[in-house]
Amino acid sequence: MYRDKTKVIHIGDRVIGGGNPILIQSMTNTKTNDVAATVAQIRRLAKAGCDIVRCTVPDLEAAKAIAQIKAQLADISIPLVADIHFDYKMAVAAIEYGADKIRINPGNIGSKEKVAEVVRAARERSVPIRVGVNSGSLEKELIERYHGVTAEGIVESALDKVHIIEDLDYDNLVISIKSSDVMMCVKAHELLADKTQYPLHVGITEAGTVTSGNIKSAAGLGIILYQGIGDTIRVSLTGDPVEEIKSAKLILRTLGLRTGGIEVVSCPTCGRTNIDLIGLANQVETMVQDYALDIKVAVMGCAVNGPGEAKEADLGIAGGIGEGLLIKKGEIVKKVPEGALLDTLKYELDHWK
Question: What is the pLDDT of residues 230-252, one digit of tens each?
Fold first, then answer.
């Protein structure tokens, strides 16, 4: 596994690389200098299971807000990453105001002297730098050399930026390379993983809405992660950032890369379904988010196949005609009215041993 061999990097009180668990990231979409709104959103993200949060820092007010945000989140101690574009002074300021990590593209920061100022500030406080390169920011000469935007060009661009910082004698680095082209992104990660031992932050950028973005992210990230590539993950969605956390957790659990939390399985419905299975399954999925149990819950639509299909689940409910069955470890426990199914399941979860 590539991730077992990557360099260990400390981000606040979290650790990535060297075989440590893959951490989930997201990015706030509030104005960073709106401290109250940003803190509220970060708390929602943390409650959903987010490990690291990135905030944009376009100006000095946003950089100063980092200190206030961290102070108000001291009780949950979640690392904050400052997202910087173009202005190296904002990177320096964000570090001075307490950012636990910064994300830059040295190519749009400016001269090597400006990059050196950022590295100096990062070295003084042992702040990691995430070198981020997207397919959309690929240099003209690389596009010409590779006859278009390619995985090879993205990797070369990223490594060129890494070498700029390494030449300044700093290697507290994380690399991210992203593209909205899923298979290009997969190939780029495969190429990069063979060329570096820095931890990799993986994601499919500009993936789209909650529906299309989840499909593209699951396909691309599934391939990348299954190959042992990736130390942190973000599912980029056009929507509530909390949805990114839910999706990332599910992708990691599906691949066996994270345990904990209730896994809900449900059947796709058919003509035998005589209860509101779609509504019930959605209610169950929402309800179980508040439980720290590491179990599988099945929500099935009929009493014909339900008990059999739920055998592999720890707990399950299967619908009938206006009623349903409660199933534990593959055994039917009792029959209850349809309206009582959700409450019956909740009781079992509340008293699960």
Answer: 999 999 999 899 999 999 999 99
Domain carrying residue 199: 2-254
Residue 15's SS3 state is strand
Kindly list the distances between the CA atom of residue 237 and the CA atoms of 228, 242, 259, 285, in Å, as whole numbers in the listed order.
23, 10, 23, 20
CA distances 310 to 306, 315, 342, Å, are 6, 8, 16
Nearest CA among 233, 323, 241, 288 for reference residue 16 = 233
pTM: 0.89
9 SS3 class = strand
Q: Does one domain contain both 167 and 275?
A: no
Are the beta carbons of 219 and 186 closer than 8 angstroms?
no
Is there a contact between 171 and 208 (Cβ–Cβ < 8 Å)?
no
Res 305 pLDDT > 70: no
What are the pLDDT digits (tens) for 1-49?
789 999 999 999 999 999 999 999 999 999 999 999 999 999 999 999 9
Between CA 176 and CA 157 the distance in angstroms is 11
The letter for the amino acid at 135 is S
Residue ending a domain, among 231, 254, 277, is 254
Rounded Cα distance, 278 and 248, in Å? 23
